[in-house]
Amino acid sequence: MFERFAGIALAAAALFLVSPAATAEVIVYNASLSGEAAPSAGTGTATVTYDDALHTLRVEASFSGLTGNTTAAHIHCCTALPYQGTAGVATQTPSFVGFPLGVASGTYDQTFDLTLASSWNPGFITANGGMLTSAEAALAAGLAAGKAYLNIHTNFAPGGEIRGFLAVPEPGMLALLGVALVGLGIVRRARHRA
Question: pLDDT per position in the chain (194 positions), as tens?
């Protein structure tokens, strides 16, 4: 009885994991921030969570050891090639609202409503069809393609002291699918032996 229940549960989990999401997707992007363009010992991390159903973008960042004091921070998009190059600012200018300015270390956590023009750089909206929905689509595509980065600017490096391209970490969903499929294989072998 337990084997049958376990088999059904694992099969349901596997089907759930491989079925396409019909309504919403929440994608988490991470970045390690470093001074690739400016000679900086500063470091940081960023997590950006995009929710296409709620049309939100949560930005979390932590940074320390900057040579200069912060003057701005935002997301740039979309570079010509994944994980390299530079691009214009997509999000708020001159800086994220509430980002700690005038400091060499700090943390930040803010969720932006992408249906509001105030969440965007007006130039990014114009360059991407002139509508908030087209700007959101362009940013979502840039994030998914590895063509967006979070940049922290300082008075030491006005063009950006530390930055990092936003990428999806190793997919946990694939790991869960693998576990479910292994479980199904174990249950199937146990049935054949019985």
Answer: 444 444 444 344 444 444 444 457 899 999 999 987 667 889 999 999 999 999 999 999 999 999 999 999 999 999 999 999 999 999 999 999 999 999 999 999 999 999 999 999 999 999 999 999 999 999 999 999 999 999 999 999 999 999 999 998 755 544 444 444 454 445 455 555 66
| pTM score, whole prediction | 0.76
Among 72, 66, 76, smallest CA distance to 31 is for: 76
Domain ranges across the chain: 23-170
Considering the domain 23-170 in this protein, what is its CATH number? Answer: 2.60.40
What is the sign, positive or negative, of the torsion defined by CA atoms of 55, 61, 67, 69? positive
Q: Which residues contact 16 (CB under 8 A, 6 or more apart)?
A: none
